[in-house]
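Quick note —
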Amino acid sequence: MTDDDVIEIPDSFPDSPEKPAAKSRYDRSMVEGPLARSVWKIAWPTMLTNMIGGLQGIIDHALVGNLVGFKANAAIGVSNQIFIVVIVFIVSLFTGMSVLVSRFAGAGDEEKVNRTVYQAFLTAIFMSVGILAPIGYFASPFLLDFVNAEASVKAEALPFLRITFVFSIGLLIYFMLSGALRSAGDAKTPMILGIVMTVLNVVLNIVLIRGLGPIPAFGTMGSAMGTSIASGTVAIYALWKLWRGGWVVSFPRGGGWGPDWSIIRKLFKFGLPTGIQGIAMNVGGVLMLAFIGSLAESAAAQAAFAVSYGQLFSLITWTSVGLMGAAAAVAGQNLGAGKPDRANAAVHTAARFGILGAAFIGSFFFFFPAQLLAIFGMNEPAVVEVGTQLLRILSISGIFISVALTYTGGLQGTGDTKSPLYISIISQVVIPLGICVFIQQTGTLEPIHIWLAILSGHITRCVLSVIRFTQGKWRAIAVDIEMTRG
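Predicted structure written out below.
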């Protein structure tokens, strides 16, 4: 950690009156109650939200696959790959917001929490309307060419991708609000909003993809329309609530409505490393797919990888990401409350939850791999063989990645967003790809080599994340913003 990681800007109004009532606005069990309960209170709604969001993607593919055809599945898959790379980077800026919000909520400073949320909202508006919409619209054809989408798939994907980019504002506001609420100690509200958005999305997709009465069938484009309308509706309600008040976070009253560049700079300072981390990991994943495609039995390996790693392993990552968010929120709040030892213990508690969850799910991977693959119609001997190999390795790998993610949450929540970036590049890109390159150059690359390379990366990420967190340098990271009168 360098000196400029320590940011301490004194409040410009030291003589402002005390606001003791503001401390009761936040759930003080985050910094005072039993740690296991505090972590679980944030984790379980986030886990459920992630699972429902994942199921929405499965439902979308099932709808377009049955109503339009397999080319629509390919179009949505390709478009989502492109959009995810972009959105992961932009949404990472809200990691910076979460660092500030959790710290200020832990300190009971309502004014700074709300000011940070409002500036994150302005940033989301600018990123969507000023960058994603215009650039995404005009760049979509070139992006589809870049990923080698064939002509028939591109014809389905282009309107889908353009609608997704142009009307991304709803999703960005939802992601921003969800991060702010969780960091302030409220994980149930984002869960409810996520469920409403998912149900609305499914209903709209059924209507818009196939048509109903006077509403024509829009096909693949209808899926993007449904997502945009659903997220936009939730965003409008969220803005009304933020303005009216009633949630644990809201828009500030007074202080000016324009951008506050000192706060926005901190959003980028803490958020950009997470964005770069997300891009690096996505690039590493694409390159790993290239190695799988180079195998002699590539079709079987790709099918096994898509189901085992892309779908079944999500059962572990969904829960682990929920625990990562809980570790970040609880650790950040306790550091803001001046309780670094409690912040440290909170992350260890989240890791224990992660181990138990990953071991439970992993036991099914280890003992019933063929049965799990059969659920997805994978009964061919070649696919079952490599799929069984991968699932049994993932049963072990899941424990390491779950622990790694919780400690990543602890680092990010306390303000150390650079270390997870470096750790991810080493563990998720350099090591697994390096192993594959070495074996390919010195012998014959087999599926088991790629699966073991993935395991090696997860073990490395776990070990480095635990070591970095236990060093305790995050304790010295001070976070503050300068409040100015409008």
